């Protein structure tokens, strides 16, 4: 898939080095097709790392994808340069009149707070409401999945005594649903969170369907409104070293009771490095989303997206 991004975005050189097809705006203008318009609301503190992870995840189909990065207007990024944010990110008032084929909302390190205590919660609520009429399909990741389920369906979250951290085994349910087409019966995925959704709230709501589940980590993939809204409670986009970085960061901070990442390091020995065991299913998940719930569902005229509601 040719990803269309700003020529100067730092991730571009890394992606090209990995033989991922990246197209700049000048070249894309010479193609007589309409690219899919995907907007990514990046709430993660490590902005550039998350950009790279998600761009890799969206690069596995022959579709041309036009990427826009969205930042919060009411909360300034603390771990990224102002120049990077001003150069490559936009704010909601600048795009609220536009229509997008897909929206990705990332996780955020605010799980221990009630949703209403998050300083940008009103802004996120406005964007989630806007997505109902201006986006064909919205993909919520980790905390954003909890936030979306809470806002749209009243699904509660609860804090955990022990962080869910590491690689967890999941089983595929409703195998004929296109979002999990090509999945094995059992597959792995990374999780890193201090809270979980209340399963009973999901199961009793007829609009929500659990497509993949884990005995330890809970519901993983949840779908609503025939794919207009998708909720993924883990981090399938994570690179092989991401959990390693989180673990060593917390150790360096001298935090008490730092959880050890389950089933992540070879023989549970950090010095042997991690074992990548989730990438194929992660790629399939994002490819299925783009193909079945964005490309095949969206309209050629973006203004008609509002009619899909």
UniProtKB/TrEMBL annotation:
<feature type="binding site">
    <location>
        <position position="163"/>
    </location>
    <ligand>
        <name>substrate</name>
    </ligand>
</feature>
<comment type="function">
    <text>Transfers an acetyl group from acetyl-CoA to L-homoserine, forming acetyl-L-homoserine.</text>
</comment>
<keyword id="KW-0963">Cytoplasm</keyword>
<dbReference type="InterPro" id="IPR033752">
    <property type="entry name" value="MetA_family"/>
</dbReference>
<feature type="site" description="Important for acyl-CoA specificity">
    <location>
        <position position="111"/>
    </location>
</feature>
<keyword id="KW-0486">Methionine biosynthesis</keyword>
<dbReference type="InterPro" id="IPR029062">
    <property type="entry name" value="Class_I_gatase-like"/>
</dbReference>
<feature type="binding site">
    <location>
        <position position="192"/>
    </location>
    <ligand>
        <name>substrate</name>
    </ligand>
</feature>
<feature type="active site">
    <location>
        <position position="237"/>
    </location>
</feature>
<dbReference type="InterPro" id="IPR005697">
    <property type="entry name" value="HST_MetA"/>
</dbReference>
<keyword id="KW-0028">Amino-acid biosynthesis</keyword>
<comment type="pathway">
    <text>Amino-acid biosynthesis; L-methionine biosynthesis via de novo pathway; O-acetyl-L-homoserine from L-homoserine: step 1/1.</text>
</comment>
<comment type="similarity">
    <text>Belongs to the MetA family.</text>
</comment>
<dbReference type="Pfam" id="PF04204">
    <property type="entry name" value="HTS"/>
</dbReference>
<protein>
    <recommendedName>
        <fullName>Homoserine O-acetyltransferase</fullName>
        <ecNumber>2.3.1.31</ecNumber>
    </recommendedName>
</protein>
<feature type="binding site">
    <location>
        <position position="249"/>
    </location>
    <ligand>
        <name>substrate</name>
    </ligand>
</feature>
<feature type="active site" description="Proton acceptor">
    <location>
        <position position="235"/>
    </location>
</feature>
<keyword id="KW-0808">Transferase</keyword>
<feature type="active site" description="Acyl-thioester intermediate">
    <location>
        <position position="142"/>
    </location>
</feature>
<keyword id="KW-0012">Acyltransferase</keyword>
<dbReference type="GO" id="GO:0008899">
    <property type="term" value="F:homoserine O-succinyltransferase activity"/>
</dbReference>
<feature type="site" description="Important for substrate specificity">
    <location>
        <position position="192"/>
    </location>
</feature>
């Amino acid at each position: 898939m040719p990803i269309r991004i700003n020529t100067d975005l730092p991730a571009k050189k890394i992606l090209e080095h990995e033989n991922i097809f990246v197209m700049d705006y000048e070249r894309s203008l010479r193609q007589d097709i309409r690219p899919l318009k995907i907007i990514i609301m990046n709430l993660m503190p490590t902005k550039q790392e998350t950009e790279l992870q998600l761009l890799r995840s969206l690069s596995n189909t022959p579709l041309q994808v036009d990427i826009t990065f969205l930042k919060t207007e009411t909360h300034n990024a603390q771990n990224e340069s102002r120049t990077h944010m001003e150069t490559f990110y936009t704010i909601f008032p600048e795009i609220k009149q536009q229509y997008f084929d897909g929206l990705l909302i990332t996780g955020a390190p605010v799980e221990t707070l009630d949703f209403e205590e998050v300083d940008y919660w009103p802004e996120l609520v406005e964007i989630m409401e806007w997505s109902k009429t201006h986006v064909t399909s919205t993909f919520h990741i980790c905390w954003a999945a909890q936030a979306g389920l809470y806002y749209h369906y009243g699904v509660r979250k609860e804090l955990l005594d022990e962080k869910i951290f590491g690689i967890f085994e999941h089983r595929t349910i409703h195998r004929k649903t296109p979002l999990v087409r090509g999945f094995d019966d059992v597959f792995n995925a990374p999780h890193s969170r201090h809270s979980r959704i209340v399963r009973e709230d999901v199961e009793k709501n007829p609009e929500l369907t659990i497509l993949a589940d884990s005995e330890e980590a809970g519901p993983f993939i949840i779908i609503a409104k025939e794919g207009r809204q998708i909720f993924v409670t883990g981090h399938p986009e994570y690179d092989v070293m991401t959990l390693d970085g989180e673990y060593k960061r917390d150790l360096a901070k001298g935090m008490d009771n730092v959880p050890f990442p389950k089933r992540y390091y070879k023989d549970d020995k950090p010095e042997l490095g991690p074992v990548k065991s989730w990438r194929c299913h992660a790629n399939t998940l994002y490819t299925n989303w783009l193909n079945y719930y964005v490309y095949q569902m969206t309209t050629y005229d973006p203004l008609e997206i509002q009619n899909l509601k």
